[in-house]
């Protein structure tokens, strides 16, 4: 079950399209869908979590808490909408594209992908691109 929660003014348009997409991403990685909660928030909200739980005094776009057991992926994924907006400008992409990248990034971590080394980050980026291309909105 995929849930979307909002701790800021932002809301996803077409939540069902995102739910369908994320379910397909999970299946494409041969994983089972557990309970996944996305929490959209602002920089201050996510900074407090970063300091309190990870002892990092920095701004970030995403923090995920992985509760995966075996092949069933579950967890809480916090996303700063402010960071996504700034990163979209920095990377010269649309807000929607950067948001999809970050949303997929959290799921890919739960599927076992890492991004601490250059090699791992390159694979993560490739997987993000692959998963973003799977997003479709019914017309």
TrEMBL record:
It comes from Flavobacterium ginsengiterrae. Single strand-specific metallo-endoribonuclease involved in late-stage 70S ribosome quality control and in maturation of the 3' terminus of the 16S rRNA. It comes from the Bacteria. The gene is ybeY. Keywords: Cytoplasm, Endonuclease, Hydrolase, Metal-binding, Nuclease, Ribosome biogenesis, rRNA processing, Zinc. It is found in: Cytoplasm. Zn(2+) binds at residues 105, 109, 115. InterPro entries: MetalPrtase_cat_dom_sf_prd, YbeY. Its main location: cytoplasm. It is an enzyme of class 3 (hydrolase). Its cofactor is Zn(2+). This is Endoribonuclease YbeY. The keyword Hydrolase applies. Its EC number is 3.1.-.-. Belongs to the endoribonuclease YbeY family. Coiled coil: none annotated. Binds 1 zinc ion. Gene3D superfamilies: Metalloproteases ('zincins'), catalytic domain.
């Amino acid at each position: 079950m995929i849930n979307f929660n909002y701790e800021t003014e932002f809301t996803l348009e077409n939540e069902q399209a995102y739910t369908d997409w994320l379910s397909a991403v999970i299946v494409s990685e041969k994983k089972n869908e557990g309970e996944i909660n996305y929490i959209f928030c602002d920089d201050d909200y996510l900074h407090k979590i970063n300091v309190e739980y990870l002892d990092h005094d920095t701004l970030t776009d995403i923090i995920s808490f992985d509760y995966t057991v075996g092949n069933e992926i579950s967890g809480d994924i916090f996303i700063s909408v402010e960071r996504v907006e700034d990163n979209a400008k920095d990377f010269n992409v649309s807000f929607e594209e950067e948001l999809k990248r970050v949303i997929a990034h959290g799921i890919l971590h739960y599927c076992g992908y890492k991004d601490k080394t250059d090699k791992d980050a390159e694979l993560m980026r490739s997987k993000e691109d692959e998963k973003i291309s799977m997003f479709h909105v019914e017309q």
